[in-house]
Structures are given as structure tokens and as C-alpha cells.
Amino acid sequence: MLLQQQVHNHYYYLQQQQLLLLLLLLLLLLLLQLLLLLLLLLLLLLLLLLLLLLLQLLLQQQQQQQQQQQLLLLLLLLLLLLLLLLLLLLLLLLLLLLLLLLLLLLLLLRRRRLLLLLLLLLLLLLLLLLLLLLLLLLLLLLLLILRLLLLLLLLLLLLLLLLLLLLLLLLLLLLLLLLLLLLLLLLLLLLLLLLVLLLLLLLLLLLLLLILILLLLLLLLLLLLLLLLLLLLLLLLLLLLQLPTSITTTTTTTSTTTTSSTKLLLLLLLQLLLLLLLLLLLLLLLLLLLLLLLLLLLLLLLLLLLLLLLQQLLLLLLLLLLLVLLLLLLLLLLLLLLLLLLLLLLLLLLLLLLRLLLLL
User: Fold this and answer.
1) What is the H or E stretch that residue 170 is in?
2) Where are the domains of the chain?
3) pTM to 2 decimal places
4) Which stretches are transmembrane (predicted)?
5) Residues 104-142: tens digit of each pLDDT
């Protein structure tokens, strides 16, 4: 589960990065769109200046009205056409701006079909823009054919200035984008460092827990050994008490018989107390064994978690197999120990019953 969560987090992180890059591209397109709008406004101002020049020429050349009337009308028509084309370009660029904003919104909402439709509309608008630019170039060629060199030179100079401004703006945009990318990279590096530190802290805590559990296991093993020694001593004592005594059965007086019977009763009571003590020790031994089993399970689970964090899959599988085998072995040992102890208790009880029967 932890590995799946890590894969899912990595996939979600990649999606977020992809979305961030798309947003940056769209912002760049929006800025370019604004630059184009500024360019068009400058062109409109240029056309207004040209109109003023034409009016001045009309005022200066009133004497030659008959000869240059047609030429001036043609110039006015051409300028009007230029104005109309620029207005159309302005409208198309505004539409492109709106479509880019819609694209940004749909990208944030993750609507793929609407996003494709808007992309198609953007392509159509770009084609229209190209057509209008071609028309502008044709008009400029027409001015060149009519040998209006002065106007043509003015237009060319203004276009060069606008191109230089546009290049400067693009360079500034590129610098801003580079700064943004650097900031993003720094943030990612900081996040990675934080994650590494958290993982290291988690690993240290796991190692401390493992050491504590190992110490507890050692203490439990020592207690188990002491209990086993006590059990063995009690069993030896019971066996020694079960040995036949040197009491004679044929006596002459009644006092000797009464003293031997009291001794036997005291021995039986002592054996019963020893048996009860053995039972209590057995219960304590079982509890300690269960606790030992639980600590071993906890130790193995912590090792599994540690291997998961370190992404060691092969070692993880081997440890799982070892865990299963260890559990089976512990269960078998517990069962065997219980059986042996129960058999010993049964034998001692039988001996006690026999002694009681002999007394009776």
C-alpha cells in the first residue's frame, strides 16, 4: 500500500508539473497577444499621421488639383483600406485574447473536448490574421508601384522601430520566464530536501524502536531461562519427594505408625504445594512466551516498514517468508512445551494419587 501511495503521489506530482508548464505557455501567449495589440495601436497612430500628411499635401498643392486629384483620391482609399484592415486585425487579436483566456480556464477545469474546439477556433483565427497581413503587404506593394517613396520610407522606419520594441519586450519576457523557472527549481529542491530529512528522521526512529525491541527480547529470554530453571528445580524436588522412604511397615507400637502417617501427609501436602507452584510457573512461562512472540512480530513488522521505506523489494519478500517460518516454529515449540509440561504434571498427579491410596 505504501508503494502504491508513493507511485500515486509521483503521478500526481507529474500531472501538476505538466499543468504548470501549460499555464506558463498560455501566459506567454497572452503576453505576446498584448504586444501585438500594442503594435496595432502604434500602426493606427502611424496611419493617422499619414492622413495628416496627406491633408497637408492637399493644402499645399491646391494649384494642381486637376492633375493630382485622382492620385489623392487613390491615396485616401488606400489609407482607408489600411485602417479597415488594422481594425480587423485588432478585432481578431482581441478574439484571440479571449480564446486564450478561455483555454486557460478550460485547462484549469480539465475539459478536453471544449479545449479541442477552442484550439480549432484559434487556428482559424490565426489563418485569418495571416490573410489580413498578406493584404497589408499587397497594399504596401501598391504604394510602392505608385512611387510614393516618402510614405513608404516612413512606414518602413516605423515598422523597424516597432520590431525593435517587440524584440526588446520578448527578451524581457524570456528573462522573466527564466527567473520563474529558477524559482520553481529552487522550490522543488527545497521540497526534496525536506522529504529527505523526514525520511531520515523516520528511519532513525525505526532503528531506535528496533533496538528497544531487541533489548526487550533479550530480557524476556533471560526471564524464560530463569523460569525454566525454577521449573526444573521444582520437578527435581518433586521427584525426590516421590522416592520411597525408609519407613517400615511392620512396627510394634502404635506411636510409630501415627508418626509415619503424619510424615506421609506432610509430604503429600508439600508435593501438592509444589504442583500448584509448578502450575503458576507454567502459566507465567506461557505469558512470557506470548509476549516474546508479540515482540518478535513487532520487530519483523518494523523491519518490513524499514524495507518498504528503503524500497528493497527482494529483501522484503525474504523477510516475509522468514516471518511466516518463525511464527510456525514458535507455535510448534509452544505446543511441544505445553505437552511436555502437561505430561509431567499428569505423572506427578498420578504419583500423588498412588501415595494417597497407599496411605488409605
Assistant:
1) helix 149-242
2) 181-234+270-360
3) 0.38
4) 21-54, 74-107, 114-145, 151-179, 186-213, 219-243, 264-283, 289-308, 313-332, 338-358
5) 666 666 666 666 666 666 666 666 666 666 666 666 666
